[in-house]
Write a structure and sequence with these properties.
- The chain is mostly helical.
- The protein has one domain.
- The protein has 4 helices and no strands.
- It is elongated and about 55 Å long.
């Protein structure tokens, strides 16, 4: 979640442009796939509710994504370990 927050605040400050034609934006998308929501939101949101919803969605979606990857990796690891024993 810290990575997603860092990506979000970097994008919000303007260091990462809104489109995906910049290497920084592509790297942010690789590290945090829910960053794709930045296209829908745009970097200049004025409503506080919209900012909270977009940031919360990016952070929580990234957390659930990596939790699922970790659970899948644990399943594969334990399955292979049982098979060897």
């Amino acid at each position: 979640m810290a990575v997603a927050l860092a990506v979000y605040f970097t994008w919000r400050s303007g260091a990462i442009p809104g489109g995906f034609d910049n290497p920084a934006a592509i790297l942010a998308l690789i590290v945090c796939p829910p960053f794709i929501l930045s296209i829908a939101a745009g970097p200049a949101l004025d409503a506080d509710l919209a900012i909270v919803l977009i940031a919360g969605t990016i952070v929580l979606a990234n957390a659930f994504l990596y939790a699922g990857v970790a659970a899948g990796g644990y399943f594969v690891f334990t399955s292979l370990r049982r098979r060897r024993s």
